[in-house]
């Protein structure tokens, strides 16, 4: 089999490209969905980190109903997913995008197992538990003695905060 040479240096020719070399909407969506999965994020978590105004629109980009490779939101999606310049050229070789390293990225705290259990168990009742800002706020807490040991303990702490109007990043 003779490989098809790409008119775009360093980018393999895919069958699913338009005449300008831009990746097909479904292929671009799949590429970004794979990166989202690598991060272990849900669409809502990605939406919170991008300029995409609506998670439904982001869902359309990731499903290939709208071509993410041609979207004005590609840069912010790329930054959130830690894509490099080569990844962006793969999606759309015509784009010139500077991906700046994150400035002052906050340290991420590991999510304790019991807190993750609380997120999994109670997020239907308390959807804010799915938000990274709440997860990091709770995970960063210091306690006298031991940390909460059960999902119920973490949920009680979360409910106490919300009852008293305490919000992460903006008390």
TrEMBL record:
Positions of the HTH cro/C1-type domain: 32-88
MF term (GO), any: DNA binding
Chain coiled-coil ranges: none
InterPro entries associated with the record: Cro/C1-type_HTH (IPR001387), Lambda_DNA-bd_dom_sf (IPR010982)
PROSITE patterns: HTH_CROC1
Protein name in UniProt: HTH cro/C1-type domain-containing protein
Lineage: Bacteria, Thermotogati, Deinococcota, Deinococci, Deinococcales
């Amino acid at each position: 089999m003779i490989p098809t040479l790409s008119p775009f240096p360093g980018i393999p020719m895919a069958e699913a490209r338009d005449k300008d070399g831009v990746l097909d909407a479904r292929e671009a969506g799949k590429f970004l969905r794979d990166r989202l999965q690598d991060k272990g994020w849900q669409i809502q978590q990605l939406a919170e980190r991008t300029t995409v105004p609506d998670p439904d629109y982001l869902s359309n980009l990731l499903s290939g109903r709208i071509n993410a490779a041609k979207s004005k939101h590609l840069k912010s999606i790329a930054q959130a997913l830690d894509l490099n310049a080569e990844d962006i050229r793969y999606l759309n070789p015509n784009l010139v995008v500077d991906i700046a390293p994150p400035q002052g990225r906050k340290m991420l705290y590991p999510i304790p197992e019991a807190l993750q259990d609380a997120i999994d168990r109670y997020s239907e009742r308390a959807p804010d538990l799915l938000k990274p800002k709440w997860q990091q706020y709770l995970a960063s807490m210091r306690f006298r003695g031991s940390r909460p040991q059960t999902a119920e303990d973490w949920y009680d702490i979360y409910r106490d905060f919300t009852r008293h109007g305490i919000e992460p990043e903006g008390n």
